[in-house]
Every structure is written in C-alpha cells, then in structure tokens.
Here is the input.
Amino acid sequence: MTDKKTGIAIFGFGTVGSGAARILLEQAEALKKRTGVEVALKKICDRDVTSDRGFVVPEGILTTDINEVFSASDIHVFVELIGGIEPAKTFILKAIEHGKHIVTANKALLALHGREIMDAAAKKGVSVGFEASVGGGVPVIKAVREGLRANEFQSVMGIMNGTANYILSRMSDEGLAFEEVLKEAQRLGFAEADPTYDVEGIDTAHKLAILARLAFEMQVELSDIHVEGISSIKPLDIEFARELGYEIKLLAIAQKAGGELELRVHPTMIPVGHLLAQVKGAYNAFYLTGDSVGKVMLYGLGAGQMPTGSAVVADICDIAMASDAGNAPSGMSGLLPLRKRPIETLSSRYYFRFSAKDQPGVLAGIAGVLGQHNISIESCVQKARGQKDDVPIVMLTHEAMERDVQNALAQLDQLDIVTARTTVIRIEEGKKI
Ligand code: HSE
Here is the structure.
C-alpha cells in the first residue's frame, strides 16, 4: 500500500460496529500519528443505515449493498461485526476471495469454522485479525501471540463471559437467586433475550477454543471442551462456598497435564484470596501461566461498544502497518493435532451438595457409595433441618478422579434417600492456580 492509505469497510453497524466506526472517524488523526499510516473508513454496510448511532457519519459511507464492498479496489480490510455463523461466514470467505484482509469479533464463527477461514486466508495471503473475539477490550490475543511468545504455556484460565460473571457476582454479593438476577440483567438489556450461550458456558467455550489454539498451538475444536454452565448454582452453594473460603466462578481452563491438554468450562470454586475471585460484575480476566514469565493476569471489560471497538481498531491498525511494510500478519497456522486429556481422567477436589431426606443412616449411605468409588470425604456439613424430605448436605472431597465421581453420583442419584440431582462443583486450589 504505497500511498499508506488503508481502506476499511465495516459490515454490521450494531453495538460493536458503531464503536469501531466512531473510533475510526473521531480518532483518525491520532491513529495516523500513532501508526504512521492512514486508515480510512470507506463503507459501513448494514440493513439499517438510518437509525441515529449518536455520531455523524460522513456522506457516502453508509450502504445497504455489500457487493459495493467486495468490488471496491480502495477497500483493503473487511471488518465483520454481524456475529453468528451465516451470512458472516459466506461474506468473510467472499471478502478473502477478493483479496481483502479480515477483522472479526465473531468467536462462534472462529470456534466452529476457524480452520476453514484461516486456510482460505493463508491461501490468498491475507490476514485475519480476531482480537475482539476474546475478551472484548482486553488484548489477550496479542499478549499470547506477541508479548508472551517466548513462553511455553502451562495453563490458560479465565473468566471469559461478563454476563455469567455479573450474575454470579450479584448472587454472591446480594444472596439473590440465579433466575432473579438473570431477569434483571435482561430487563437492563445487559443479558441477551436468549441467554443460553452466556449462562450455559458455550460463549466461554468458544473463547477458550480460540485462545487454547493460540497458546498451545494445537487444533482445538469446540467438541473437545467439557462444558457446564451456571444455571444450577443456588445462593446456598455460594453461601457454603464462602464459609469454606471459596468464591464460585465460571472458569475456562486449558491446562497441560502429562503432555496432554485438559479443556474445560464449568463453575469452579477458587480460594477467596485468589486474584480471579476478586473479578466482579461484567469484567473478564485471563490468568496465564508460562514457563518463563510465570503468572500473568489481564483484566478488563470483555464486551461493550467502545471496549470491543478498541480491539477491532487495534487489529485494523496492525494490518495497515504490516501491509505497509509488505508483511501482513498471518492468522493461525501450523497447528498440531490436539492431544486431549479426557475429562474422565481429571483429578480434582470436589464440592457436592446433596438434597437428601433427614433421617438416620442417610449420611452413612452416601458416604458408603462414595467410599466404594474411592472417593474420600474431607468434610461434611448439614445445616437446615425441618424440611424432612429435602435437606442440603454438603461434602468436600480429597483429590478424586472425575470418572469415579460420575459413577458414584449416577448410583447416588438413584437412591431414594437422595431427593434431587446432586450439585457438583470442582475446586481449584491455590497451589495449582
Ligand atoms: N456475551 C458476552 C459476555 C460478550 O457476556 O461476555 C461478548 O463476547
């Protein structure tokens, strides 16, 4: 790009699209000064080009016709911000075919079809920037790829979904029920109308797949990740956890274990003094362990118009600068096949909350089944009395094998002394994390 002008088209003028457009328009001079190249917003494509987004878009930029973008020779970077799989995937592949670099915030698309998109981009010699797909405004992709590139990672953990963390934080701080906080978050327009991806851990798993591929250079698929959400967590669990010295967080964990990689997303009890336990509200945090650097934590807003817009614009600038130097950065290539550690072989301490009848022999019955499966109890608490058919019994275990835990619970949940499905939360210890 000899005239040092990089033309940008944004596809999707929603929350993130407006944030990115606003930065590109309002900070054009500052960006030029910082990067030494000129980044020019040429087109914004959306079905709705008339609603007020709160800032002025110069004439000629807004369009409803995406084909204008593909054929324009002065557009070098195609920024996909509509989310979802289709038509985002088709348009990204078409833009690559036309020789455009790609910037996207689309974690679901990259988690599910990342390989196809990266292969197409590599073939065409264009780059794919995806900083905004994980952690919103937190530059975790750049940290893993660049700042920490000297390291072999031992683990990548994090709170990667603001909605789930907001819900757990409110439950924890105010003793509210999951359903109540979720409804409130939806009323405030904070949680999606369909919150499944956020509360069931799927959005977190999308982000973990992307991050784990980069950190461990292995081909991680979404189906390789064990996923559990937070919808079965009760205020009672949070209260018990607190008394035992833990907070409950929806954690994403990718961890090396004997040459294999453990990949899991689930509610996790972490010691209250741990940095990740202090992450409250809609914030995200990434806790990385590398062989040279040791532990690094990144913290910030994982969603929202301007934080995510900030990540999108950073990718645009990187592409503009690298293209100017004749050196467009690659996406993600040369990944090795995954050596996955199955969840059944996980060794962890566990929290169990049984709902059981309050009668003689119940504790002995539960403990007996756990014992048969090699699960050793560290402590046990039974508090409430009165409701004879449904009292909570909480047990913490010593290190146990996931396979044994699942087998024991399958047997226990059949017993007539156990009156509801048992809640299980894995415990991460301070020494491990
Ligand atoms: N829905 C996500 C969250 C933000 O709540 O964190 C976008 O990744």
User: Anything to note?
Assistant: The CA atoms of residues 16 and 304 lie 7 Å apart. Residues 140-301 form a domain with the Dihydrodipicolinate Reductase; domain 2 fold (CATH 3.30.360.10).
